[in-house]
Amino acid sequence: MGEHRPQQPRVTVVVPAYNEARNLEIVLPRLRAYHQVVIVDGGSSDDTVSTVRRVAPWAELVDQTRKGKGNALVCGFARATGDVIVMFDADGSADWREIDEFVQALADGADFAKGSRALRAGGSDDLTVFRGLGNRGLTMLTNLMFRARFTDLCYGYNAFWRDVLPKLELPRHRAG
Question: Are 14 and 77 a contacting pair, CB within 8 Å?
Fold first, then answer.
């Protein structure tokens, strides 16, 4: 797999969104520089769709085909044309300036780059004590089982080469 990967890869940013109009006003203009930005709307009842069209007419707007963030991501992955896919939350919890660091890690030989709320100035306002304990427990178990060194297993800010998608055997984005 990674034999012919470019040093300067084209980047597709996939942004699942459900009722994120206010956040997208701030987040989307910062993503303009990338090869492709795919916003996957999960049937929002606010102004998410009109906000995307107004603030980022250059972005591709995709409707989610089933419920859940996983399906939203798979719908975005199906539309991706870049060499690298970056998963980016619409809520503003991720620092868009880190995308280039993720892409550089991939260009330097990694297959996958994972963000963490437990490093540097990380954190999250919506990570409750219960969810935080669950995340730490899952992270610790995964690190023990796989001899890994994750610091935040459940954070969804990740980047990977698009050519690994077939290996992930993800469910189809459409039913059937």
Answer: yes
